Input
Amino acid sequence: MVLVAKPAGPTSHDVVDMVRRALGVTRVGHLGTLDPFAAGLLVLVVGRATRLAPFAAQWTKDYTGVIRLGTVTATDDGTGAVVE
Output
């Protein structure tokens, strides 16, 4: 298992590809997708450990976020220009 502090920007699949290249292995998977805008801990399984991925669905996961009320953006998310 590999724990990666994923920054905002790359997709979970992008991070998996980076780890594949860095470790020189083909079997790498993640235990939950993070939105490209999200930063956080991305849990990866490598090699034979990919077989354990189905069991991770039973794990308790916590998510936190920030909501800014009263702001409207052109894209309805934090990446767009504020229009109101």
